[in-house]
Amino acid sequence: MKRNFNEWLGEFRESIANYGYYIDFKKVHQNVDAIKVQLNILNSLVGSHDIENDFEKIIKDYPETLKCIPILLAVRSNEIYAIDEDGEYNYDFKKINYSIEQYKTFMRKTGLFDLISNHIINNLVDYATGVETGLDSNGRKNRGGHLMENLVEGYIQKAGYIKGKNYIKEMNLSEIEKVWDINLSAISNQGKTEKRFDFVIKTSSNIYGIETNFYGSGGSKLNETARSYKTLALEAKMIDGFKFVWFTDGKGWNSAKNNLEETFDVLDDIYNINDLENGVIERF
Longest C-alpha distance within the chain, in Å? Predict the structure, then answer.
């Protein structure tokens, strides 16, 4: 019985964010702990009435404290470039490449001296933890990209498949051909292009090449993805013993529903999270 596209699309989720999606606090604390000693040394500058001279003394006695400076500006780099009417500089905070006087200029012009000396902050360790937390929030996009992949893999394992035995994560077409002696030239343009599937499942009757994604918001990429997977679906139908499977979800598809429906019409094995929950992988 053919499924109804609009009913299927209506099952799509707003989000699949798990508890670890928002902030990776383990990583935050590891990053702060790596410079905690140096930050505590710099803490002596908080509220200083002579911060420039005090800073100079610290840098002379503890030059390694310089490596803390970039994170105070929310920069993940050992080098920071700056230019103004007084010149052009590329400061190295791992190995001093200018005079201490020039580093004092950097601290003054970036506002760090003011931040520290005027009690705008009271503890650099706490401040750095806050900065790291903010920077880590930028990693949500990368973590989000793996959420659907991880979700699907959980259901693959729940269905009884064993990693390295009858399912493999991230496998290229050429590897599939070599391992299972199957001709996938209909997909690879006679071997001219290489494609990597998120997962490959091997059963007694079929090889399943699986792609996964989740789109919480719209964009041109969705149309491009739907079109390319429609082509892939048509090509895969020419290969005996191979099936292309696509697990996708997310309300973002509402902005590209026409292209998605075109793929839905030609790809029998296109599924959403609701299909996963209803045991579709167990029926492979």
Answer: 80
pLDDT at 46: 96
All structural domains of the chain, each given as residue ranges with its CATH number in brackets, are: 5-19+140-283 (3.40.1350), 34-137 (no CATH)
pLDDT of 190 above 80: no
The Cα-based distances of 99 to 13, 55, 85 in angstroms read 56, 13, 19
What sections of 172-215 are H helices per DSSP?
173-180, 185-188
Give the span between the Cα atoms of 52 and 103, in whole angstroms.
Answer: 10
Supply the pLDDT for residue 2: 83
Residue 232: how many CA atoms within 13 Å on its side-chain side? 25
Cα–Cα dist 102/91, whole Å: 9
From the number of C-beta atoms within 10 Å of its C-beta (0-12, 13-18, 19+), residue 205 rates as exposed
C-alpha span between 132 and 257 (Å, rounded): 38
Using an 8 Å Cβ cutoff, are 70 and 80 in contact?
Answer: yes
Cα 8 → chain centroid: 28
Say which DSSP state 49 is in.
Answer: S
Six-digit token string for 23: 């902030």
Residue 209's DSSP bridge partners are: 200, 244
Cα dist. 166→4, 158, 177, 202 in Å?
32, 13, 15, 5
The Cα–Cα gap between 40 and 229 comes to 54
The 10s digit of each residue's pLDDT in 41-98 is 999 999 999 999 999 999 999 999 999 999 999 999 999 999 999 999 999 999 999 9
